[in-house]
Design goal:
It is a single chain. It is built from 12 helices and 11 strands. The chain is of the alpha+beta class. The chain has 2 domains: about 5-205, Sandwich (Jelly Rolls); about 215-320, Orthogonal Bundle (Arc Repressor Mutant, subunit A). A hairpin with a 4-residue loop joins strand 4 (about 50-55) and strand 5. Helix 6 packs parallel to helix 9 and helix 9 (about 255-270) crosses helix 11 (about 290-305). It is globular.
Length: about 325
């Protein structure tokens, strides 16, 4: 069971798209300000060349991003990127590409920066899974490296992907927008994989999935969420006592196993409720609830609305051509 690809299950559950917004080509001094993003948006930045300082005004944290580093902000936090000199930034000149993104340049004579900035879009209500289970900030590195057996690492795959993104961002190429948007899911997926494999795995779902003793439980829940899992069942998969399992799970995730299981089921239910032929009773059964009343209570508690309200909202948005 521990070999189940939980990340693929997770990403199939949500609907994710992405787009490049700005290709920054600057000389120091420069500065870029990103306001708080909408609930369903995840900003990202790829430093192709040079370095950038990223600041989070809310937490007061600052870190340097070097060439090859990629940062995602799953909570959409407001942030500032700059060259670190403290000098007033040079004016920028922008022009729109046929691919839909903007190329932004300045005439700064200092250290050069080449950076791609964009954002991912998570279809509601699955954005709550991202906020609840991924960290506020996620940084990974794309480098050309192999292990002792010559096998390419995830970081190496990221480097290849970033190289392709760099080529597509240069000039106006036929089909560039579609190609670049298609690369976004691969970037998001590889970034999560790289983070889960790093020595300092961020707290949350990635930390849990990378824990060798707890991984079987998370794999089981994503692979077969409608099964009537109990804490003893999940603890047995991890060869732990119930109490030890509960303690380790809570420590790594910050939430209980049953909370995660319910969140998985409710995200599945939100998808099923969009289907015209699916009644609330059928959806409840599909996601593992034998009691429709219990399903309605759980859905309202997690989603902030009843299944019927969500169905009407989703269908009304589809009729208007709006994705939810």
């Amino acid at each position: 069971m521990h070999q189940v690809d939980w990340l693929s299950h997770f990403l199939r559950m949500i609907t994710l798209t992405g787009q490049l917004e700005v290709h920054c080509v600057y000389g120091a001094p420069w500065r870029v300000v990103w306001p708080q993003s909408a609930m369903h948006e995840i900003p990202y930045h790829v430093v192709l060349k040079g370095r950038a300082i990223i600041e989070d005004p809310e937490t007061g944290t600052t870190r340097e991003l070097a060439g090859g580093e990629i940062v995602l902000l799953p909570h959409g936090a407001a942030h500032v990127l700059h060259d670190g000199s403290g000098h007033a930034p040079r004016p920028t000149h922008r022009h729109r590409s046929s691919g839909g993104w903007t190329r932004s340049e300045n005439d700064g004579q200092g250290e050069s920066l080449d950076m791609l900035c964009g954002r991912f879009f998570i279809e509601p209500p699955h954005d709550r899974l991202i906020r609840n289970y991924l960290p506020r900030s996620l940084t990974v590195r794309a480098t050309d490296s192999h292990d002792e057996a010559g096998v390419m690492s995830t970081s190496n795959h990221l480097a290849s992907l970033v190289g392709l993104m760099r080529l597509e961002s240069e000039g106006d190429k036929l089909g560039g927008q579609v190609i670049f948007n298609s690369l976004s899911l691969a970037l998001f997926t590889l970034a999560l994989r790289a983070a889960s494999e790093s020595e300092q795995v961020p707290a949350g779902l990635l930390s849990l999935a990378g824990h060798p003793r707890l991984a079987p439980a998370i794999s089981a829940m994503f692979a077969d969420p409608i099964r009537a899992w109990t804490l003893p069942d999940l603890a047995d998969l991890c060869s732990m006592s119930r109490a030890t399992f509960m303690r380790h799970f809570q420590d790594k995730l910050g939430r209980s196993a049953m909370e995660l299981l319910t969140d998985i089921r409710m995200s599945m239910a939100a998808n099923e409720l969009k289907k015209p032929a699916m009644t609330t009773e059928a959806v409840a059964d599909t996601v593992g609830y034998r009691s429709v009343a219990a399903f309605r209570r759980a859905f309202a508690d997690k989603m902030g609305m009843t299944p019927g309200q969500w169905r009407r909202l989703a269908r009304g948005s589809e009729q208007l051509g709006v994705t939810v």
